[in-house]
């Protein structure tokens, strides 16, 4: 009797395990597909970088590893997932975009992330750039001015376990005074000028990467290094096109 009941339970458990395996197989295949598309995207970015003047020396290996880790398909709307690993910006709604992966790699590389760094990002958008940075530094603070995007990005980053990213709704022009000074600041929307509060919140020795220029003009991606308390050195890196930095200023 005992043997029959045990056999029956074993059979039921086996059937349940087989059902579970059958149900999770398509999901596993989908994830494997995304992982291989992501690996191809990283190779494509590395190859493209060697052809562009601003990145001819190639990107830091850790930056490329971070791009290979972050699941970009989780940061785009459902109907854009198929295109998530194409090297181009994609719409995330509200007139905004998730940046082109090559540009994310370039900006991350220029910010010269170190493991102990605290970084500010202005323009959370989908949260993707913040997630990439969090693979490389110890804390990322990110500010987004559009409320639904700020809420969605916060929930997404929490769901995906990016515990080192703290995000909030606000106008990033003014930085995030409570957590300053920052080792690096990455601005992912084009400003008409370099916001003075951001310069003030950069550590001596810190780097800021920011696109500057008008809405309908070619913008310049700038790398600003704070060499002393009141000294900065600015380099023009590349012509770029970003959505504008909005807000009161
Ligand atoms: C190109 S998208 C950023 C993409 C984002 N970094 C990502 O990884 O998805 C620029 C973002 O900057 C935001 N933004 C524009 N002006 C801002 C401001 N003053 N403060 C904070 N965010 C701002 C926009 O709403 C938009 O979400």
Task: Describe this structure as you would to a colleague.
The chain is 38% helix and 23% strand. It is an alpha/beta fold and 249 residues long. The strands form two sheets. Strands 5-4-3-6-7-8-9 form a seven-stranded mixed β-sheet. A two-stranded antiparallel sheet has the order 1-2. Strand 1 (90-93) and strand 2 form a beta hairpin. Helix 1 packs across helix 2. The longest helix has 50 residues, at 2-51. The protein is globular, with a radius of gyration of 22 Å. The mean pLDDT is 92. The structure holds S-adenosylmethionine. Residues 96-99, 122-123, 125-126, 128-129, 143-146, 149, 171-173, 188-189, 242-243, 245-247 line the site of S-adenosylmethionine (SAM).
């Amino acid at each position: 009797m005992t043997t029959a009941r045990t056999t029956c339970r074993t059979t039921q458990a086996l059937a349940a395990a087989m059902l579970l395996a059958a149900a999770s197989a398509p999901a596993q295949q989908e994830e494997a597909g995304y992982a291989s598309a992501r690996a191809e995207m990283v190779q494509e970015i590395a190859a493209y970088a060697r052809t562009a003047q601003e990145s001819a020396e190639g990107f830091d290996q850790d930056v490329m590893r971070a791009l290979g880790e972050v699941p970009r398909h989780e940061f785009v709307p459902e109907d854009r997932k198929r295109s998530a690993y194409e090297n181009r910006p994609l719409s995330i709604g509200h007139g905004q975009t998730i940046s082109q992966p090559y540009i994310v790699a370039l900006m991350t590389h220029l910010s010269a992330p170190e493991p102990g760094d605290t970084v500010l990002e202005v323009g959370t958008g989908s949260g993707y750039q913040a997630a990439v940075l969090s693979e490389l530094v110890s804390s990322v603070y990110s500010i987004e001015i559009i409320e639904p995007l700020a809420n969605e990005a916060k929930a997404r980053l929490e769901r995906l376990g990016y515990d080192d990213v703290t995000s909030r709704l606000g106008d990033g022009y003014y930085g995030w005074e409570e957590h300053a000074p920052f080792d690096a600041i990455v601005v992912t929307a084009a400003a008409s000028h370099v916001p003075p509060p951001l310069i003030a919140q950069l550590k001596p020795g810190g780097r800021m990467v920011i696109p500057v220029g008008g809405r309908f003009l070619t913008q310049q991606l700038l790398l600003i290094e704070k060499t002393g308390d009141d000294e900065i050195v600015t380099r023009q890196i590349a012509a770029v096109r970003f959505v504008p930095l909005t807000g009161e200023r």
